[in-house]
Amino acid sequence: MGETSSSSDNKKNHIPIEIVSDDEMAVIEAALAFASTRSFSAVRSSSPPHFHTNALSITVVSKRRLSSGSDMEDLPPTRKKKSTLSDSFLIRFRNKRGLSVTDLTSTEWCSKQMEFSLLLGGRKVNQAMRAGIARHAKLEQEVIKRVEVKVKSQEDYWALKFLNFINGVNQLLFEGLTRELPIIGFAEDILLVGVIDEIRMPLAENDHNPILIDTKTRARDSLPAEPQRRNGRLQLMCYKYLWDSLVADDFPSKQFFTYFGLNPQHNLCEDLKVTSADGFSASTLDDVVRYYSNTCRMLAPAHDQLLLRYEYQKDHSLLGEDKFAYDPDWLKNQIRSCLEFWLGEREATCTPEEERWKCGFCQFKTFCSAYTDSKGTVAPKSNDSDIKEG
């Protein structure tokens, strides 16, 4: 794929073009990444897919770190199932779609709220969320130009996700920065997808581990409470887990094709067929996935230090930064707890009493005993006939 200039043909700085779906523009704080196939998507065209000599040292670093990652097989044992898998929220609401990182963070925030949003309809996007979406769109536009390309099949749809990742990695290695990078992986045989807000290469020459960053916008000029910071940490740790898993292991392509019932030999639409600078040609979904796997092998694991940035929505001033270390054991427990909910292995629970202030901001509070009981009223009983499935 070629490059396009930002304003004129003779301008030196080139802005990569990315294919992104309309869903992904709303993924920040509110929407679910990769929730549905769109008729139109966008493709990122970064520098030609030919890496500079630093890629060799990055590969060496990656190989030295293969054994340091944590496997999801090491997760603690699950609790006894309360229902069959066919009755689970995963099958009922995310079948053939997989879970997004937003699904996990929303479940950690309050699994009862997540249950209500599935059974009664999705959460409403409020003014603060819209402001956050707009801010992230602006940050994305600083480094990426979006164009629309019509996709004709599920194979096309997933191919463009992989191509976005490949070209985003090219931009990261050539320019030291990329944003809104789609990432796809598995946790306990469950497909998990996300969009990494920002990735930077370290300034130190001997450090090749990409730094994962997420920017949160605040309606108030104050830092968030600990439960909000904890939720943001979970999000970034999930991204690091997905990134490190892709770097350390071959992408399970057969498992991916089977999971979605995709035809790996499906011929892609003309807009998605690519020939890279190093001679690699991709005309089928299988070609793109192999290209994706080869790209992942060239990368180093993400940096163990992760960064959350908090901005004031009014003027985009920096309120503070939360630098924290990756905690694989804590992450395992959090993912396990969330998956138990999605797999039907545990009931949804209300938020702890010390965090019941969350209820005041929940659109489902009138249906929830955690809120109505605290008001001295009786919570209405659920009736399956009154529940509209989304």
Low-confidence stretches: 1-81, 376-390
Order of helices and strands: EEEHEEHHEHHHEEHEEEHHEEHEEHH
Distance between the termini: 39 Å
The count of β-strands is: 15
Top-tier CATH class: Alpha Beta
Strand content: 15-25%
Percent of residues in helical segments?
Answer: 25-40%
Task: Please report the number of helical segments.
Answer: 12
CATH architecture: Alpha-Beta Complex
Please characterize this protein's 3D structure.
This protein is of the alpha+beta class. About 35% of the residues are buried. Strands 6, 9, 10, 11, 14 and 15 form a six-stranded mixed sheet that branches. Strands 5-3-7 form a three-stranded mixed sheet. Strands 1-2 form a two-stranded antiparallel sheet. It has one domain: Lambda Exonuclease, Chain A. The chain is built from twelve helices and 15 strands. It is globular and about 60 Å long.
Feature tags:
three-stranded mixed beta sheet; Lambda Exonuclease, Chain A; single chain; six-stranded mixed beta sheet; alpha+beta; 17% strand; 390 residues; 12 helices
Fold topology:
Elements: E1 4-5, E2 14-15, E3 17-18, H1 22-25, E4 40-41, E5 44-45, H2 54-64, H3 89-94, E6 99-100, H4 101-109, H5 111-120, H6 127-141, E7 145-146, E8 149-150, H7 154-175, E9 177-187, E10 190-200, E11 211-218, H8 226-248, H9 253-260, E12 274-275, E13 281-282, H10 285-297, E14 305-312, E15 318-325, H11 328-342, H12 369-372
Parallel strand pairs: 3-7, 6-10, 11-14
Antiparallel strand pairs: 1-2, 3-5, 4-8, 9-10, 10-11, 12-13, 14-15
Helix pairs in contact: 4-5, 4-8, 4-11, 7-10, 8-11
